Amino acid sequence: DGGITQSPKYLFRKEGQNVTLSCEQNLNHDAMYWYRQDPGQGLRLIYYSQIVNDFQKGDIAEGYSVSREKKESFPLTVTSAQKNPTAFYLCASTDRQGAADTQYFGPGTRLTVL
Amino acid sequence: KQEVTQIPAALSVPEGENLVLNCSFTDSAIYNLQWFRQDPGKGLTSLLLIQSSQREQTSGRLNASLDKSSGRSTLYIAASQPGDSATYLCAVFWFRGTSYDKVIFGPGTSLSVIP
After folding, report:
1. Measured between CB atoms, which of A41, A99, A103 is closest to B46?
2. Which of A18, A98, B61, B93 could form a disulfide with A50 if both were Cys (CB 3.0 to 4.6 A apart)?
3. Are A34 and A45 in contact (CB under 8 A)?
4. Which of A88, A103, A108 shows the shortest C-beta gap to B34?
5. pLDDT band, residue B75 (cuts 50/70/90)
């Protein structure tokens, strides 16, 4: 089955630690996205990548970093510089470079800072 | 500045009713608009995508319309069922030429269909 997987489902982090969230897709999509969702708010774009080895900042990139070394993988690192990292993180992909076709979402990772 | 709003924030209806969810956006130069469904604690599932050149899209009991000039989209759900209970989000995409520019998600409408 084709789709997007995110791991882990739940993640707990101590203050001052960096953590990395995994996102893998086997849909052969070129573009991948990371969003953050907070209660009562719409999703906000953190980073996006339209092709391998290239990515751009979204609206709230501060305190986050990404890499895109393989087409199917787009990991997100939440660094200690992110002041309020507790949130629900969603990864998505589309099947053309930057063209806003239907976005397919993963199941999400819930990050909690202890 | 681009903004996306959704009304109402929450809606509760008896099973079988037809209902309309609203999405409004500023800056009518959109690329497309997408409607999603989100179940609690889960990712988003795409329902309908309307390109900027289209007026509406239909899938089963769902119909989405787009009026760019007024900055509005509606999602119509016919003959609602308890399984339709979820949060519905709209997302608006803007492009510069063929390059992605911005996406903004609305805050969502929480729908509860009572058996």
Report:
1. A103
2. A98
3. yes
4. A103
5. very high
Residues in A touching B108 (Cβ below 8 Å): 42
The pLDDT, as a whole number, for residue B31 is 87
CA-closest candidate to residue B61, choices B45, B42, B48: B48
- The structure tokens listed for A9 are 């489902």
Q: Are B81 and B97 in contact (CB under 8 A)?
A: no
For chain A, helix, strand, coil in percent to 5 are 0, 50, 50
Q: Convert the pLDDT of each residue in A9-63 to its tens digit.
A: 999 988 889 999 999 999 999 889 999 999 877 899 999 998 899 999 999 999 9
Instruction: Produce one character per residue of A23-44: b if its CB has 16 or more CB atoms within 10 Å, e if not.
Output: bbbeeebbbbbbbbbeeeebbb
Q: Distance (Å, rounded) from C-alpha B80 to C-alpha B14?
A: 8
**Residue B85's closest CA among B42, B26, B33?**
B42
